[in-house]
Structures are given as structure tokens and as C-alpha cells.
Amino acid sequence: MTSAPRAARKGVLHDIHGVQRADDYHWLKTQGKADPEVLAYLSAENAHLDTVMAPLRYTQAAIYRELLSHVQEQDDQPEVVRGAYAYFQRTLEGQAHAIYMRRPLAGGPEETLLDLNDLKVREGLENVWVYRAVPSPDGRLWAYLLDTTGQEVFQMRVLDTATGELAGAPLTGLSGWVLDWNAAGTGLYYATDDATQRPDSIWRHTLGQPQAQDEWLLHEPDATFRVAALTTEDGGTLRLVSQSNMAQEWWVLDTAQDGAPPTLLLPRERGTEVPVLTDAGDHWLALTNHGGAEEFKLVRFPKRAGTLDWADAQDVLPYDPARHLTGLLLFRGHLLLSGREGGFTRLWVLARTPGGYGPARRVEFPEDSVTVRIGANHVFDAGSARIVFTSLTRPVEHLDLDLDSLDTTLVKATPVPGYDASLYVSEQTWITAPDGERVPVSLLRRRDTLLPAPTLLYGYGSYGFSMDPAFSIARLPLVDRGWVYAIAHVRGGSELGRRWYDAGRLAHKMNTFTDFVAAGEALKADGTARELVAMGRSAGGLLMGAALNLRPDLWTAVFPGVPFVDVLSTMLDDSIPLTTNEYDEWGNPNHEAQYAVMAAYSPYDNLKAARYPHLFISTGLNDPRVAYWEPAKFAARVRDLAQPGSGTVVLKTIMGAGHGGSSSRYEYLNEIAEEYAYALAAVAGTLPTPDAP
């Protein structure tokens, strides 16, 4: 038996819409992450985790060694050409972080731009993340956004590649959404956040000037919108967008005209979405749902003075409800489109002709159950495009796609030492949800695995993000031990198009959770799963909490990672990051009907006296997306309500990290190993028994 810490209970009664909501652990939020009592509780939980894991550390170490054995520690990522240089990242054996490199295309020695290992030691940093790095047009300067806390508040540093020194003092307090150069390489565009960490402003910085003199280009006062910007493929136009979940407004700026203000190109219109828009010379190209094109279509607008008019829009690729379009990349002679058909990712190529565009030709691959996406491309005149290809059993391959012939050439296959693809098999099955909808589930196992077997079921199901079948070494220690790894493609993602997303958000959000539970039930009923372990992160952590509440008896263990589990408290507080941006995803609980929808599934508020499975809950103290107090409150309340026979509950807080965990690739592997060791012990029945409350 092991004695878990008990958080102090300081009863608070929330009252809204005439509904009272008891919250004994609200103090974990209001007292803040720097409060000694909060830190003492989180530290006690970490100490409890260490006690629980003490007999499992040998297993954890063995899994870590297995994971590491599949990593090519010394490796170069594929080169990406920008201007006169090819840029790439290098990792070295024993070093936790990447080294940013480049080589001149004309020949000459490689150059080291940034060694994150050296930076971390030199500046005494616990973690280091680079979110975006962009060279100036002439390659003399190299700008990057650096986060050292995990709070997603960035410095912008500009390296003078000729001297190896920074070209001026770093800019501070930046958002991670924007970093681009003007045409002359004398200035940069960047974004900043408001007090809730919503990107609300875009700025122009002139090199050599203090940040206080930077020019404010765009400000978005509407708290439900956020800003972003990116130059067009030819580098001539900066596209500035203010976007919400259901509308976008586009502005443009000539990058060659210093001091030019942005001009409005396409005003926002609620319900009309234009997620992608680019400058195609004498016309604009856009993906849109305008006119009822729920799965999106491709249109063009002639260039003229003033804002665009939908009456002028012409179809380039007419609407097809069986084809969900998601992205485009323009080249001088071709257009590359990404999207989905039949539940899988697809690519199409259209030739650019003097009169417009040729027919859309689909890029074909030998198998359907794969994931393919557009890779990094920065050469507008190129006749080939970098694409990325993977499946559950096939490690990531970087390919060059000939835009005329549609033939592909392998650039780099990710090396995975000790991996033999022939030993594994992937499948897709379909389960039936309670409302009759058929939901796809992807499965990975070794060919010699006997069923039923322990099964890890992973899920996400929010924001339209799809959990596409892709290779990961992280699954190998489980499947090599005779487990099945399953991914439930629940509603709320976009695996089956926009309709799939819309059927799992707002008033339909419960579908996400019942889909996942139905997947677990079906895997047990059809003889696949013997024991079920559920895992999900962030909004997938919300899924874990809701699935736990719906069927606590179905799971042997549940792993809510950085979980969004206190939905009502978060969405009622418009002073914290993401809240106002996400009213279109979850609803606005200030409206009574929408409050009722969220109250019906909010995991923290729907916990009840039950016999709970084992729980491994994780968070980062500096997480700006899902604050530490959500998982902390959830763990405390589960312990209050756990009936005799419940499993062990642990809460892990990484004190120096944010939403993504530690920045070290070795720590990342160790965190996976720790969770898997816990899962193996849970299934084996060897976890210590918790004390009765």
C-alpha cells in the first residue's frame, strides 16, 4: 500500500445561470503556480509518483534502452533549400538537442548556425525550443524564435552569419505565430500576444532600431479572433490574417515597399471560411466553403482595386462533397493541393497554363492506408515538390514529387535501427457508435501477437485535427511485448472530412466521447483487446476524462496527458489563454444553453463515486494551453471519490516545461518509458495498492 498526498479542501461554490457548482480545489488555480502551498502539493505528488515508480524503474530503464536503440542518434534531417543555401538540422550521439546547420549550394564548408546544446549550457537553461527559423533573402542573417520556459513566449534573435554574433539585442515578448523578412532583408515581421496570450498584433521591425520603435501593422480587438502572417510562395506579398474558427479576414502588404501599410483584401464574414489564400500573379487563389461548399473548394479572384467580391469568384476545382481540401502550395508552373478522400490524406497537382489551370491529377501510392503531406518547399521556380510519406509500419520518408510526371524520388528514409517492418501488420477496422455512425479505428501489432491482447487505445478528436496513421518508434516497446496499439478516429477530428469535425464539437461534442468508448467496447467484443489502456493528450486528455466518467470499469488504466479536464472553470475565465479563441470549439458558457452542454461532459464536474482504474496524469507547470491546476484538481477529486478497489492515481508535474513536455529528446523518451512501465504494471496487476481514503 502507498499513501498518496491529499490536497487541502477549501470549499468554493460557483453560481451561474442558477446552477451551483461545488469546487473544493479552486484554490489550486487562484493561488497561482508560484504559491508555496501549490508548489508543496505538486512536489508531494511528484514524490508520490517516485514512490509508486520505485519498483518499476528497472522496467522503465529497459524500455528507455529499447526506445533509444531505435534512434539514429547521429543523423541529419533532409536539407531544405532557401536562396543560395541548403538548411538542415543535425543531431549528435549523446546530445539532447538539434544543431542548426547550412551549406552553400555553390560549394564550400558547412556552417553551424545554432547549437542548442551549447546555448543551453552557456545560458544555464533548463529547456530550449526553437519554433521557427528564417534566413534573410540574401542569407546573411538568420532569425529564429526561442522559448526557454515552455510558456510559449518567445525571444526573436537574429544571427549575423558573417560574424557569428547576434545582430542587435533580442526582441522579447513575442508570439510564435509570425516570423518573416521583408524583400530587402532589412526588416522582419512578427506578432505579439495580448494579456490572455492571444496573438492580437502584427509588427514590422527594422534592423538596428529598438523594439520600442517598431511599427504596428495590424491589431485585432475581437477576443474571438487571432492573427497570423506569412509571405507568399514568391516572397513578394505578406499575407496577414485575422481568424476565428468560423471566419477569416485577409490583409496584404507588399514586402518590397518599406513603410507600406497593409490593405484589406477580403473582409470577414461569419460562416464563410477562407483558411488559405495566396497571390497567383494576376489573380488570387483561395480555399473556401463559400456557397455551401462544406468540404471546401478552390476558387480564383481577378485582381482589381479594393476588396475581393464573391461575385467575381471562379471555380478552379469545383466542389466535390467526397473530397475535403485542406491546403495548397503554389509554384510558378504548378499548384499542389492537399486534402482527404475516403478517410485518407491525398495530394493533387494542377498545371498552371496561360489560360488558368489544368485538371487536378491525384498523386497515387501503392497503398491507401498511408499519410502524405506537403513538406518544406521554398523554391518558387522548382519543378518538384518535397512531400512527406508514412504509415503505421513505414517510417517517415521525404520524397521529391515531380510535378509533371507525378513520379517520386526518395530523398531520405528515416533510419530506424533494429526495426524490421515485415514483423508488423497494420489494419483498419470500423466500429458502430451508439447513434449508428461507423467510426474507423487503426490497429498496429506484431504478426505473431496472439489475440486477445493488452491494447492501448489512443484518441484526440478536437479542432478538426486528424490522428492519421503514421509511424512512431514510441509504440514499439508495447507491440514488441505483444500489445495492440489502436487509434480511434473519433468525431471532432477531420478524418472523414469537415462533417466529421462538425459532428464532434459544440452541441455535438458528446459524440467524441461516446465514439471512443464504443471503440473500446468493440475491441473487447471482437476479441482484439484483453485489457484496455486509454491514452490522450491535451484535448485528448479531455477525451480521457470524459471516457473515464462514462465507463470507469472499461479501462485497466487511463493516461490523461496535459488534460483539458476542468472545462467550465477554464471557459468561464476569459483572462486565460485560448478561452475566447475557442468559443466556436466548445461553446461560450456565459450562455445558459451552451453552459449546459459543457456541464454535461466536463470531466472534473462529472466525477462521481466509483471504482476507478489506475490513472497516470501529467502536466507542465509552465503550460500556457492547459494550466497545471486542471490536472491537479482532477487528481485530487478522483482520490476523494475513489471507492475501495480503485487503482493507483499519480500526478506528474514537470516543473520546468510547458504543454509539450521536456525539450530534450532523451527526456522525451524517458517520459514515454515511465508511462509504459506504469501501463505494463497496471495490466500485470503489480502496481501498489492505494490507501483507502
UniProtKB/TrEMBL annotation:
The keyword Protease applies. Coiled coil: none annotated. It comes from Deinococcus daejeonensis. Residues 471-683 form the Peptidase S9 prolyl oligopeptidase catalytic domain. It comes from the Bacteria. Keywords: Hydrolase, Protease, Serine protease. Pfam families: Peptidase_S9 (PF00326), Peptidase_S9_N (PF02897). Belongs to the peptidase S9A family. Residues 10-413 form the Peptidase S9A N-terminal domain. The keyword Cell inner membrane does not apply. This is Oligopeptidase B.
